[in-house]
Amino acid sequence: MIPLSGFRARLALVGSAVAFGLMAVLSRKLSRDGGGFTAGQLSVVRFAVGVLVSLAAFRIRPGLYRPHNRKLLLLRGLSGGVVVILYFFALSRIPAAPAGMIYNLYPVFATLFAVFALGERPTIHLLAGLLLATLGVWLMLGRGGVPAGLGVGELAAFASAVFAAISANIIRGMRGTDNAPTIFFWFCLAGLPVVAPFALDPWPSAPAAWALAGLMGFSAFAAQLLMTEAYGTLNVSEAAAWLQLTPIAQLLMAVPLLGESAGTLALAGVLTGVAGVAYGTAFGSSRRTPPG
To answer: Which domain covers residue 22, as residue numbers?
Structure first.
C-alpha cells in the first residue's frame, strides 16, 4: 500500500481518536445499562468483527494480505489481547472519561520504551510531560480536590496503558515490512485466544444490545486500522500526541450518551493530562528512527 502523506496520516489519527472514543463509550454503555455484556464478551465481539471484516477485505483484494514478520505479528496480537481485556474491564468498573484519561497515558510509556525498541533518545521534556500528565490524572480521579484512590478499575486502565505502549512500539517496528490490514488481522486473530477464556458467562440475547455491540466492533475496527496506517508515516511520539484527542472525544460523548458529569475538575484534568502527554511525546525524544 502507498504510504500516507503527513497530512493524511494526521487526519487518520483524528478519525482514529474519535472512533476509539466511541468504542469506549459504547463499551461502557453495554456493560452498565443492562446490556449484559462482560468485558471478556465485548473483547471477543471486537476481535471477531475485526477478523470477519479483514477476511472479507482479503477476499475482495487478495494481494492485501502480505504477512512478513510473523513473530512480531503474533506478539502484536498477544499484547493487543491483553490491552483490550484490561481496558474493557476498566470500562466496566469506572466511568468512561477517567478510564480513557488513564489509558491515554500510554504515549509517555511508549516514548520511554522507544529508547530500547527503536533507539529514540528521551529528553528532559519526557519527565516534564509525565509529571503534567500525572497531575491531570490526579485531577480526574479527585473528588472535591481530594484523590479518590486507585481501585481495581483504575489499576486495570493503568496496566492497559503499559501494554498499549508495548503494542505501539511493535506496530511502529513492523510498518516497514507489513501493511496495516495484515497487522490488524493478526491483532484480532492472535488476540481472540487471549480474551476467549474471559467470555464464558451466559451471553445476552437482546437484539438492541447486539446492534450496539456490532457498532462498537466496527468503531474499534476503524480506529485500529486508521492508527496502524498512520504509524507507517509518523513516528511513535507524534502519532501518540495526536491520539490525545481520544480522551477529549470520549468525555464529550460520555456526557450525552452515558450521562456522565463534566465538572470543572474533570475538564481541568482532561486538558492538563492531554497537554502533558502531548508535550512529553512531541518533545520526549531527540532522534527519530524509521520503521523496521
So the answer is: 6-283
Residue 186 lies inside a defined structural domain of this protein: yes
pLDDT tier for residue 119 given thresholds of 50, 70 and 90:
low
Q: Report residue 120 as a C-alpha cell.
A: 529514540
Question: What would the pLDDT profile of 249-286 be if each residue is shown by its tens digit?
Answer: 888 888 888 887 767 777 787 788 778 777 766 776 55
Is residue 225 within 8 A of residue 81, CB to CB? The reply is no
User: Does residue 288 form part of some domain?
Assistant: no
Q: Which grid cell sits at 179? A: 501493511
Asked if residue 191 lies in contact with residue 85, where contact means CB atoms within 8 angstroms, the answer is no
| pTM of the full structure | 0.79
Share of the chain above pLDDT 90, in %: 36
Q: How confident is the model at residue 2 (pLDDT cuts 50, 70, 90)?
A: very low
C-alpha to C-alpha distances, 262 to 219, 235, 265, 266, 274, nearest whole angstrom: 23, 32, 8, 6, 16
Examine residue 292 and state whether it is found in any structural domain, yes or no: no
Q: How many domains in the chain?
A: 1
Whether 289 maps to a domain, the answer reads: no
* Whole-number Cα distances in Å, 100 to 45, 96, 111, 119, 254: 20, 6, 19, 28, 11
Give 240's contacts (C-beta < 8 A, 6+ positions apart): 106, 107, 110, 111, 168, 277, 281
Going by C-alpha positions, the residue among 148, 107, 64, 58 that lies closest to residue 275 is: 107
